[in-house]
Specification:
The chain has 4 domains: about 200 residues, P-loop containing nucleotide triphosphate hydrolases (Rossmann fold, 3-Layer(aba) Sandwich), CATH 3.40.50; about 150 residues, P-loop containing nucleotide triphosphate hydrolases (Rossmann fold); about 45 residues, no CATH class; about 130 residues, Alpha-Beta Plaits (2-Layer Sandwich). The strands form 4 sheets. Strands 3-4-2-5-6-1-7 form a 7-stranded parallel beta sheet, sandwiched between helices. It starts with 13 loop residues before the first helix and ends with a strand. Strand 12, helix 13 and strand 13 form a beta-alpha-beta unit. With about 600 residues, it is an alpha/beta fold.
Length: about 600
């Protein structure tokens, strides 16, 4: 196991430490343990770490220590690639600053009324978290003034680069005071990111989370795409379905451990929790009950579970996706000990599926998607179990007295023995909950996310911008469509379905209903010196949808086509109504 550094060891402000403790975190992640001391020394940092490793707290905690709550002027600027991330970072900073009265954090991003943001900024703000395009809008309007900024942070810098924000990042950094601390966090280090570091940072310290070679145990690994509010129900269904004698569930915070234990106990499971707030005597008692089988489910944080070696754990639940890839391996290694079979279940909420994809790739393992068990599945399993217990009781117990009592009741009433048996079975099974299954639809394969989703190769839904899932040389707007449908990619909107203007071109036949995507037309193209990254950055920045879900971007001389999810098409068109790309007004509509 990696060395544990607790937050108490980092000489943090007592107010920040109180907030961190309340959030339930026990120990710093590797990137936090390395970056926090360096940033507190005032050094510039280039941090290389994947999403989900705790980067926000890594730069947020030292930043809050440096901010003066009494100074009602902008002191720090954080740039993020998307509206979603800007909101997320701002919310986490607010949680960390909960007991630092006077600290105000404001997110600014496209898609939100700029006048509302202006009002918030005029009230006095110390930290702005924003997307590059909207930050530049405010700088031009003088509603963001940079004179007193002492810290600039670029979060997911390579993502901003992919989305076409390189010039914006350089412009913003060039407007900030020379005497400042500049931090840059990125999952990869392409040449452009290295150039930004060379031009805008002073002798930066490289902070990198080094990945070790891992040996993944022989464990059957499944994952389920769930909503946050259905996690407990899904876990209970799996416990009922697989009936592990002993199982462990892992949560990322102490609070979540306590909450999950309460939920499981309330549903009749023998569960106990293990985290850093327990004294040694309490830990020993919990572990003794778990080893002897009195406790069926042990819920723990990663730090508290270190050193635990129980040989007959049959199942591990990643109730929360771990913050670090190595934690995943240590977790699932709790099962499949001493030649026994083991199984691991992971619950992914929303974009956590991409983190799980990264874990699969890093660990060189296979995590298999599974549908959530339906109520019918669980009902059948419960019936089988109850009937097995009944059969065992019939074989091993003298039931003559009970049979006599049942017969007398039947003679007194109007019900048959079958009615009574069915009622008793119903009582034994308990109440049914709402069916939350996904109707048997399998969640996305993690391998498919590599082929189709951003985040695998950090490009479009079907690969790098303009490349096609249909194979080299056969992409949308490529040769297959060029002569028949696109007039070799130089035609007007009127003939984009074929030279005769009909709807019989290959494009329309292939695209119709494909992958739940909608193809949108944009009235600018290569002639306006626009790049695919500019288009993607504008769509993500203005509409707030993740760049990961945007499909192929096919550029031609005078226009561009872009695929977006069907459910987001109307939002994207509305958000882009007054947008400009490279100074050009944009008109967007559905490509019929």
């Amino acid at each position: 196991m990696m060395e544990t550094i607790r937050f108490e060891d980092l000489e943090l402000d007592s107010r920040i430490l109180r907030a961190v403790t309340e959030m339930g975190f026990e120990a710093a992640t590797p990137i936090q343990a390395q970056a926090i001391p360096v940033q507190m020394e005032g050094r510039d940092i280039v941090g290389q770490a994947q999403t989900g490793t705790g980067k926000t707290a890594a730069f947020g905690i030292p930043l809050l220590q440096k901010v003066d709550p009494k100074e009602k002027k902008l002191q720090a600027m954080i740039l993020c690639p998307t509206r979603e991330l800007a909101i997320q970072v701002a919310e986490e900073l607010r949680r960390l600053a909960k007991y630092m009265h006077g600290v105000k954090v404001v997110p600014v991003y496209g898609g939100q009324d700029i006048n509302r943001q202006i009002r918030s900024l005029k009230d006095g703000v110390q930290i702005v978290v924003g997307t590059p395009g909207r930050v530049m809008d405010h700088m031009r309007r003088k509603t963001i003034r940079c004179d007193h900024i002492h810290t600039a942070i670029l979060d997911e810098a390579d993502e901003m680069l992919d989305m076409g924000f390189l010039e914006d990042m350089e412009t913003i950094l060039g407007e900030l005071p020379q005497e400042r601390q500049t931090l840059m966090f990125s999952a990869t280090m392409p040449e452009e990111i290295q150039r930004i570091a060379a031009n805008f940072q002073k002798e930066p310290v490289m902070v990198k989370v080094v990945k070790k070679e891992l040996t993944v145990p022989e464990v059957t690994q499944y994952y389920y795409e769930v909503r946050r509010d259905t996690k407990v129900e899904v876990m209970c269904r799996l416990l009922d379905m697989y009936s592990p004698k002993l199982s462990m569930a892992f949560c990322n915070t102490k609070k979540q451990v306590d909450d999950l234990v309460g939920e499981l106990q309330g549903r009749g499971y023998f569960a106990e929790g293990l985290h850093g707030d327990l004294k040694q005597m309490q830990r020993d008692q919990v572990m003794n009950r778990f080893r002897t089988g009195k406790t069926e489910v042990l819920v723990a944080t990663d730090v508290a579970a270190r050193g635990i070696d129980v040989g007959n754990v049959e199942a591990v639940f990643n109730y929360d996706i771990p913050q670090d890839d190595e934690y995943y391996v240590h977790r699932i290694g709790r099962t499949a000990r001493a030649g026994h079979a083991g199984i691991a279940f992971s619950f992914a909420v929303g974009r956590e599926v991409y983190k799980l994809r990264d874990i699969q790739r890093y660990c060189k393992t296979k995590i298999i998607p599974q549908p959530i068990p339906s109520l019918n599945d669980i009902t059948a399993i419960k019936v089988d179990k109850i009937m097995e217990q009944a059969e065992e009781l019939i074989r091993d117990t003298d039931l003559s007295d009970m049979i006599g009592m049942v017969e007398r009741k039947l003679l007194e009433g109007e019900y048959t023995s079958m009615d009574v048996a069915a009622a008793l079975l119903k009582m034994s099974m308990g109440e049914e909950n709402e069916d939350i299954s996904d109707s048997g639809i399998l969640p996305r394969s993690l391998d498919d996310l590599d082929r189709r989703g951003r985040g695998g190769d950090r490009y479009g839904r079907y690969g790098r911008y303009g490349e096609s899932r249909y194979g080299e040389g056969r992409g949308r707007g490529g040769r297959d469509y060029g002569r028949d449908s696109w007039d070799e990619g130089r035609g007007s909107r009127g003939d984009r379905y074929g030279r005769d203007g009909s709807h019989e071109g290959r494009y329309d036949r292939r695209r119709e209903g494909a992958d739940g995507m909608v193809r949108l037309f944009i009235n600018i193209g290569k002639d306006q010196n626009v790049k695919p990254g500019d288009i993607l950055g504008a769509i993500a920045g203005e509409s707030g949808i993740s760049g990961r879900v945007v499909g192929s971007i096919d550029m031609f001389d005078a226009y561009t086509f872009v695929d977006v999810p069907q459910e987001s098409a109307r939002l994207v068109m509305k958000a882009m109504k007054n947008a400009k790309i490279k100074g050009k007004s944009v008109r967007m509509e559905v490509a019929h």
